[in-house]
Amino acid sequence: MKITADRDDARWLAELEPSVDKLTDHHIGTAKDWFPHQYVPWGRGRDFDGPLGGVPWAPEQSALDPAVRSALIVNLLTEDNLPGYHLAIGTQTSRDGAWGAWLQRWTAEEDRHAAAIRGYLHATRAVDPVALERARMAQVGTAAGTTLPGVLGTLAYAALQELATRVSHRNTGRLSGDPVCERLLARIAQDENLHMVFYRDLLRAALEIDPDPVIGTLEATVGGFRMPGHAMPGFAALAAEVAVAGVYDPAVHHDEVLVPLLRSLRIFDLGGLGPAGEAARARLADRLEQLDRRARLFIERRAQALAARAARAGAATGTATGRSAIGTPRTGEA
């Protein structure tokens, strides 16, 4: 469903193009150059098996927690599908004029993310490189698209997705236990934040032109939002592991992505809405309340599951050492 009221995409493209031009110039003036090769710990690397006759990969070579490895795989495969995102955005907006200039700049900046993460994973032997390459082939062969078609659907989805990706990279780095990984992902997160700012500010410009369809599109995008890597092989299991670890879970999605973005856009403070806009805003508020309840329930259930897991591990340790889980002597012990 395309929610653009009486403004078709051609009109949105024309009316927003001055803002695209201005925001692109601001972005270029704000963004700082960085070089992926400087963030990869090449000194940790060694040849793999194959034509170079190196050492095969083995799980014990990875120093990362399994959940962090899963998060890095999800993050990397998400970044890998850049050709699909470029095509989707270019098809829904324009490859000409200011729109095209932004698309090319955005693509060039995004392209270094996958290169840097893959370099880190290979140099540190963090994941199985053969499985990773097979997953990349499958992921890049999957079509990428936005939640809703059209200019507004693309902008709404991109703003949410860029912020979600920034948060995911940042949290993965923090939990990695590796300062090199944290530094790399923090640098990538800075790119994602500037990209989010571009799309957020373009949405703000659209709200000034005609807020009703923008809010309607935001509501529909929030309701149907899925991360762009949802079609990757094994995504459900990987996403579950990442959520349990606290890298990206329903609470993070609500508290660190949806609420800050909508607050920044002042969605619930806007005046002058028509009936369609007011109705969409009411639905959006309901969605946020529902998502918040689900997030709190997830946190409670995760805490219970982790406590039960710890209790089982403690019991197993107690049995193995001849002591109870709480460390007191078992019956018959001295």
TrEMBL record:
EC annotation from Swiss-Prot or TrEMBL: 1.14.19.2
Cofactor: Fe(2+)
Keywords attached to this entry: Fatty acid biosynthesis, Fatty acid metabolism, Iron, Lipid biosynthesis, Lipid metabolism, Metal-binding, Oxidoreductase
InterPro entries (alphabetical): Fatty_acid_desaturase-2 (IPR005067), Ferritin-like_SF (IPR009078), RNR-like (IPR012348)
One matching Pfam family: FA_desaturase_2
The keyword Lipid metabolism belongs to this UniProt entry's keyword annotation: yes
PANTHER family assigned to the protein according to its UniProt record, in alphabetical order: ACYL- ACYL-CARRIER-PROTEIN DESATURASE-RELATED, STEAROYL-[ACYL-CARRIER-PROTEIN] 9-DESATURASE 7, CHLOROPLASTIC
Family membership noted in the UniProt record: Belongs to the fatty acid desaturase type 2 family.
Record text on subunit structure and interactions: Homodimer.
Name used for this protein in its record: Acyl-ACP desaturase
